[in-house]
Amino acid sequence: MSIEAERRYLWHEVVHAIRRDEACHGWARHTMERSVEREAARRAMPLAALHAAVEHPATWHDIVWLMKVPEPWVRFRLEIAHPAERALLREARRWLEETA
Ligand SMILES: [Zn+2]
User: Fold this and answer.
1) Of 27, 51, 23, whose CA–CA distance to 40 is shortest?
2) Å from CA of 26 to ligand 1 middle
3) Ligand 1 mean position to 15 CA, how many Å?
4) How far apart are CA 53 and CA 14, in angstroms?
5) How confident is the model at residue 98 (pLDDT cuts 50, 70, 90)?
6) How far apart are CA 92 and CA 43, in angstroms?
7) Residues 6 or more apart in contact with residue 12 via CB below 8 angstroms
8) N or C: at which end does the chain have fewer Cβ atoms within 10 angstroms?
9) Residue 21 predicted with pLDDT over 80
10) Which three-class secondary structure state does DSSP give residue 59?
11) Residue 12 Cα, ligand 1 centroid: separation in angstroms?
């Protein structure tokens, strides 16, 4: 398992621990798990980190590298971004929406 994938799993389990969940029901199938994934992605990639990554001249690959998590999870984080977050990121990097 890559270090990026390990980080993703750890963030997922950290959110379960914070919520005092007693079990993990697997990934993405269960409503609770989708909620955990959204929270884990937001914690792993806070807006300030995303903004800093897209603000400087960088390729999509560079942005993913800076997030230190698997590429699909970076896409997922951008998909679940709040409208205000999306607007801020779009302003910082106009092509972001096309790439993600
Ligand atoms: Zn889980």
Assistant:
1) 27
2) 5
3) 8
4) 24
5) low
6) 20
7) 24, 27, 36, 37, 40
8) N
9) yes
10) coil
11) 6
Nearest-angstrom CA–CA distance, 48 and 53: 9
Nearest residue to 93 via CA among 49, 46, 52, 44 = 52
Please give the distance, rounded to the nearest whole angstrom, from the Cα atom of residue 16 to the centre of ligand 1.
7
**Residue type at 15 in one-letter notation:** V
What is the distance between the alpha carbons of residues 83 and 8, in angstroms, rounded to a whole number? 24
What is residue 93's predicted lDDT score, i.e. its pLDDT? 77
34-87 confidence digits (pLDDT tens): 999 999 999 999 999 999 998 876 788 999 999 999 999 999 999 999 999 999
Spacing, Cα 36 to ligand 1 middle (Å)? 7
Say how many CA atoms lie within 13 Å of 16 toward its Cβ: 16
CA 88 – ligand 1 centroid, Å: 30
Report CA(38)–ligand 1 centroid distance (Å): 11
